[in-house]
Write a structure and sequence with these properties.
By secondary structure, the chain is an alpha/beta fold. It is built from 15 helices and 14 strands. The strands form six sheets. It has a three-stranded parallel sheet. Strands 10-11-12 form a three-stranded antiparallel sheet, with helices on one face. Keywords: Transferase.
């Protein structure tokens, strides 16, 4: 019973891994993300009624349309939950209790149920009842304070991460938590449990080393554009034709980097000999590197730097990423049959299992497409009624 991104993302990952996933939606309109994003079109250019955002989050699922405001809808959902391993919802904190669909109620009919609640701020605390979307969590978590061009630079100011990172991070944490809870149930306790996951918490946790930098040092992280907060050189540079991202991980690599650039004397300068010194003297170092990098194209530098063991890469847009030979070799761009469009492109799951490869067997469903089918499959003949 999830909508928008975080919950559907977690459920789609589980579907990719082989779970049978039933997406329960309201009969009128369903998941709001069905109306977000760009319209999908078939080979003749006709819109199919699906959107890019819905397609990105909902493969591998069957859709059941139930109105939980009705006794019949509540009864059907409780019956489905009694057969399920996992129940995921992202209603407001406590919102499902009035329908008898909260964890305590469903645990009575299925003590083995893993019940995962995904909300903006969690099930308790002063913000628990507040609504929220990804930009709010990017702002409140501190992410915007470290994302964007630094003060004094052209275009200075916070920049929103270019995708719904708070939702996606929360979806990852939800997947991990569900799998851990299932393992504990099946190997230790024999019982289900409630998972309380907040998008704000998940985004704060995802700050990882950046948050720890502040907690250890008391030094406030800053917006640094493409640059690292802790290493240098570790940022994009202009070249003869387009920007190039360079990541130098240690002092030995810095010496090799400078040799490739034709600056063999630079690593011997005490100001640049160690990473700590380089960080302290970035205003003197970076112009030297930038001037040298203007001598060749990004492609030429990538070839030279890769040969020297220095990590680098072009700043691709999505068109270039789709054509990247490594991503194409890894099968990250896939197509699957789609009943209304003919075929549907999608981004593959990145996990590679040696014995149980991910399979993509079901296109994102139409609203309520499988209501009768699922109710009959799960609850038996005669259980299904018209939604």
């Amino acid at each position: 019973m999830t909508r928008i991104f975080a919950g559907p993302w977690a459920a789609q990952i589980l579907a990719d891994f082989g779970a049978e996933v039933v997406k329960v939606e309201h009969p009128k309109g369903g998941d709001d993300v069905r109306r977000m994003g760009f319209p999908q079109k078939d080979a003749e250019g006709r819109e199919t009624g699906d959107t890019s955002s819905f397609l990105a989050m909902n493969r591998g699922k069957r859709s059941v349309a139930l109105d939980i405001a009705t006794p019949e809808g509540q009864a059907d959902l409780r019956a489905l939950a009694s057969k399920a391993d996992v129940f995921i919802e992202n209603f407001k904190a406590g919102g499902l209790a009035r329908y008898g669909l909260d964890y305590a109620s469903l645990a009575e009919v299925n003590p083995r149920l893993i019940y995962c609640s995904i909300t903006g701020f969690g099930q308790d605390g002063p913000y628990a009842a507040l609504p929220g979307y990804d930009p709010i969590f990017q702002a409140m978590s501190g992410l915007l304070s470290v994302t964007g061009n630094p003060d004094g630079a052209p275009g200075a100011g916070p920049a929103l991460v270019g995708y719904s990172v708070s939702d996606i991070n929360a979806g990852f944490y939800a997947t991990i938590a569900i799998l851990a809870a299932l393992h504990h149930r099946d190997t230790v306790s024999g019982k289900g449990q409630h998972i309380d996951l907040a998008l704000l918490d998940a985004q704060v946790a995802a700050h990882s080393h950046i948050a720890m930098n502040y907690m250890v040092s008391g030094k406030m992280p800053v917006r640094a554009g493409t640059a690292s907060q802790i290493n240098t050189p570790w940022q994009s540079f202009d070249t003869a034709d387009r920007p190039l991202m360079v990541a130098v991980g240690n002092d030995r690599q810095f010496a090799q980097f400078c040799t490739v650039l034709g600056l063999p004397e630079v690593p011997a300068d005490p100001r640049f000999a160690t990473n700590r010194q380089r960080m302290a003297h970035k205003p003197e170092l970076l112009p030297l590197l930038q001037q040298a990098l203007l001598a060749r194209t990004a492609g030429e530098w990538v070839e030279l730097l890769n040969a020297a063991g220095i990590s680098s890469g072009p700043l691709n847009d999505f068109g270039a990423a789709v054509q990247d030979p490594q991503l194409r070799h890894r099968g990250m761009w896939q197509e699957m049959p789609h009943p209304r469009a003919g075929t549907m492109p999608f981004v593959a799951n990145p996990v590679r299992f040696s014995d149980t490869p991910v399979e993509y067997g079901r296109a994102p469903p139409q609203l309520g497409e499988h209501t009768r089918e699922v109710l009959e499959d799960w609850l038996g003949a005669g259980a299904a009624a018209e939604p």
